[in-house]
Design brief:
This protein is α/β, with parallel strands linked by helices. It contains 17 helices and 24 strands. The strands form 6 sheets. The chain has a 6-stranded mixed sheet with strand order 6-9-10-3-11-12, sandwiched between helices.
Length: 503
């Protein structure tokens, strides 16, 4: 039995099983890579291990003792620490204060606990030296690079006596030099007997840093591998392993129109994108595939004017001169953001109010809102998109994620948009809604709309797109027409591969 054993873990949400008897193990002094596409169940498994979610079935053992985590605090007490992509540091506190946050060494002065700052800095320096790092424990964290901040989080984990450290996409925003620095720290942790769960989409990192690999697909185990005994091809096959026919409309590319709805030339956003160019024709679905940190979300935001950009953008022949969402809307662009909760819906407003946010002016006359026309329009889109609800007046936050997403889509269809920019449109929605959205996109394209589908879900990009662009590190590293490329080639490029893939 490994130091950590998760046996036949089951978890369901709203009757949908997202983990189906998943097994996972980890030894002391071992790095295990946890792989899987978006929605495979990686995050849910880690949230169960960290006490954020309770499991519905299965057993968890740490060092031979069965544990039942009812809160993150209980998981922490057993030596489990998760370091998320969004780092949890306090920028205005010193490195040492961040390391010992919540557990600052103290002495008593006339019965009152007083922080022993000398001991704080001495112990912080010892932990950093243990990791092979020469970071001044007295400087504010805001002055550190991202990779140095990660080291601070790792030192904090060690200060909390962590024996199991989970790293979630730790290199997404790091330069190559910073990645090498992180790997050096991970190797030191491994040598000191810490077990590390390493979550990534980048396969080259898996072969560099891990000892074993566990792959999840659709909430189930799909492969267990020793890193030295496996290949890139084996891992990709385990990650994908499903047929497209079950989910997607049978879509043959039939683009006959030469009308260009969107022309993008040398599109750049400082720090995120560099000289991306493409055209989108009437009735075409352009797929843009990339992994975490590739720049696909920034491309989506920039195309809709939510981020300043350099380069030239034309919408149906009209120059997109001022990067503002209001200008984008006036030119005929619609936008489904990747972060539905933060950027897609206003949770306290009703379904009707959310649907008509972008088209209110069309229901106004003489300064008054024509409520009947507005409500009739909402009901029509609810019917056409099969949005399941009790009433169009209920708060949109009460709908399922899939129905919220359909409402966001309805918002832009109600404006008669020429081009739809759809970022991660099926992220966090159930399979039934996925199928609905795929068929809606297919129908919209047949009716002449141009769709830019930006997604980290490779099967949906392959199934729906007439043309595919691959982003990696903010650059377009590949462009394929329908049928030219397969999963292996595109994943290889998206993960930083430079050489041709053999089949």
């Amino acid at each position: 039995m490994g130091y950590l054993e998760m046996q036949k873990i089951v978890k369901s949400f709203s009757g949908v099983r997202v983990l189906d008897e998943v097994d996972f193990s980890l030894d002391r002094g071992e790095v295990v890579a946890l792989l899987g596409q978006n929605g495979a169940g990686k995050s849910t498994l880690i949230k169960i291990l960290s006490g954020f979610y309770g499991k519905d079935g299965g057993r968890i053992f740490i060092n031979g003792e069965e544990v039942h985590f009812r809160s993150p605090a209980e998981s922490l007490r057993k030596g489990v620490r998760v370091i998320y992509q969004e780092l949890e540091v306090f920028p205005d506190l010193t490195v040492a204060e961040n390391i010992f946050m919540g557990d600052l060494p103290a002495t008593r002065f006339i019965g009152i606990p007083v922080t022993n700052r000398r001991e704080v800095y001495v112990r912080a320096r010892e932990l950093l030296e243990l990791l092979g790092e020469d970071i001044d424990p007295e400087v504010p964290v805001r002055r550190l690079s991202v990779s140095a901040k990660q080291v601070v989080e790792i030192a904090r984990a060690l200060a909390k006596k962590a024996n199991i450290i989970v790293m979630d996409e730790p290199t997404a925003t790091l330069s190559q030099k910073e990645v090498e620095r992180l790997f050096a720290v991970i190797r030191k942790l491994r040598d000191q007997g810490v077990g590390i769960i390493y979550i990534t989409h980048r396969l080259e990192e898996v072969f560099t840093i891990s000892d074993r690999v566990v792959v999840l697909r659709d909430g189930k185990n799909s492969g267990f591998f020793g890193t030295r005994e496996t290949s890139w091809r084996d891992l990709v096959q385990a990650m994908i392993g499903r047929t497209l026919e079950e989910l997607y409309p049978k879509r043959a590319s039939s683009i006959r129109s030469e009308r260009v709805l969107l022309r993008v030339e040398n599109f750049s956003i400082p720090k995120y994108l560099e000289s991306v160019s493409f055209t989108l024709r009437e009735g075409e679905i352009l797929g843009v595939f990339g992994l975490v940190g590739s720049g696909i979300n920034e491309l989506a935001l920039g195309l809709f004017g939510a981020l300043p950009f350099k380069g030239r953008v034309e919408v149906d022949g009209m120059v997109f001169a001022r990067p503002l969402p209001s200008v984008a809307k006036s030119l005929g662009l619609g936008f489904i953001p990747a972060d539905r909760k933060q950027e897609g819906v206003i949770p306290e407003l009703s379904v009707a109010q959310n649907v008509t946010l972008a088209s209110l002016e069309s229901y106004c006359r003489g300064g008054f809102l024509r409520l009947r026309d507005e409500r009739n329009c909402v009901r029509e889109w609810v019917r056409r998109l099969n949005i399941r609800l009790r009433s169009i007046d209920q708060p949109i936050k009460s709908l399922s994620g899939g129905n919220q997403q359909k409402a966001v889509l309805a918002r832009w269809l109600a404006t008669n948009s020429k081009v739809l920019i759809a970022a991660e449109p099926t992220q966090g929605v159930d399979v039934g809604t996925r199928i609905d959205i795929y068929h809606i996109f297919d129908d919209l394209a047949k009716r002449g709309m141009g769709i830019v589908l930006l997604s980290s879900d490779l099967p949906e990009v392959l199934a729906l797109s007439d043309k595919i662009i691959v982003l990696e590190g903010g650059k377009a590293v590949g462009c394929f027409s329908k049928g030219e490329a397969d999963e292996r080639t595109i994943l290889y490029l998206a993960m930083g591969g430079k050489e041709a893939v053999t089949h």
